[in-house]
Amino acid sequence: MSQKTLILFILLSITGIMQAQKRPQPRSGKAPTVNINKPQTFTLKNGLKVMVVENHKLPKVTFNLTIDNPPYYEGKIKGVDDLCSSLIGSGNMKITKDNFNEEVDFLGANINFSSHGAYANALSKYSGRILQLMSYGALYPNFTQEEFDKEKAKILEAIRSQEKNVPTIANRVTEALAFGTNHPSGEYITEATVNNITLEDIKANYERYFAPDNAYLVIIGDVKYKNIKPIVEELFGDWKKKNTKFDSYPNPQNVSSTQINFVDTPNASQTEIALVNTINLKMSDKDFFPAVLATYILGGGFNSYLNMNLREENGWTYGANALIGAGKYPSKLKAASSVRTSATDSAVVEMIKEIKRIRTEKVSEILLQEVKAGYIGRFVMQVEKPQSVARYALNIETEDLPLDFYENYIKTIAAVTTDDVLKAAQKYLLVDNMRIIITGKGSEILSGLEQLNIPISYFDHYANPIEKPKYD
């Protein structure tokens, strides 16, 4: 089905929703199927899997190199992976940094690097050279003390500048309490951990984790499979397999009952509220789409339950949201808002109320259809972009998805019912096992929170438990 036909389908669906209150809603027709080009694939001896999607509509090509390693704990040198990301691409052993940058600019290309891969796009007539330059930066980095000192100073300055930033403190404590500070998702970067990092740590991090074992190279655009395959083999064939062993971590545990975790920030001009519980939701799960839609209805758009309550009805905030994580590893569901200090306790009550509402009341059919139409519309607008196609191909490989997952995307969303949304909300929005993490001015809000009859525990700005603050 063409993109124009899909957009027409969306517009007709939305029109039907708007007219639904005036007449009986018509029965839905058969959902369309999207045709997405399947990649041609091959795997190098070192484990690098290459996917090529030919698209000759425009004379452009994109390269996406992704290293799909599991998360790992950095401990006393937390920040080493961030520093490694900053340094990859800042010079390599094949061509000087200045010459590299000048040639990329001259060719009108774009190349970016990180400790988890690389990305490049260019006109297809330069595809061979751009892929070669990308391989130089990714596989032959030149880590120098001078560049290391520069990037380390930047990170330290960023940490210092955010030292008293209330949202930064709130996010740090939220992750640490939800996952635990001994978990890769819960540990946080500090001046001390960054100061522990040496140039040798950067080199060791790169040597251990930047490997082809779990790597994927997705090539999309105006190239031919038979022509690009030998180029990839030549440029990436000597990339050494590392056989790195990764530690496993216990799944984070939710609290046994609802509790408030309070962080006193005397300089706060408003209160940061986050209701959080950890989950294990995979894209391949049958209730993936119902869970995503339930979360969006709760806090994903302007007309969401949380936003209509906290912002539109009460005027306590500029906005409220809810986000759900999904993937191979444990993630979290988080409903959050920054509210007026004087409304902190009231906002907590209303946020709990809206979560209970979506867990106990079926969403209206009209609202569900409206949210589904929005998701389908956004999907249609993205489906032909090279970055989207690359992400789809990669997700199918790394998330163990059916090969027709994205072809059936519209059909799968259209089939979600109000019952499905209710069940997903009950399964993943664990209101009775949530942490209510509140970061704000304790002298003004703590007395109100105590009247909610919810157990309160106290933490410093780094998620360490402390005694209850005392105020004059």
Automatic annotation (TrEMBL):
Keywords: Signal. It comes from Flavobacterium frigidarium. This is Pitrilysin family protein. Residues 196-374 form the Peptidase M16 C-terminal domain. Residues 1-20 form the signal peptide. Transmembrane segments: none annotated. InterPro entries: Metalloenz_LuxS/M16 (IPR011249), MPP/UQCRC_Complex (IPR050361), Peptidase_M16_C (IPR007863). Pfam families: Peptidase_M16_C (PF05193). PANTHER family: METALLOPROTEASE, PROCESSING PROTEASE.
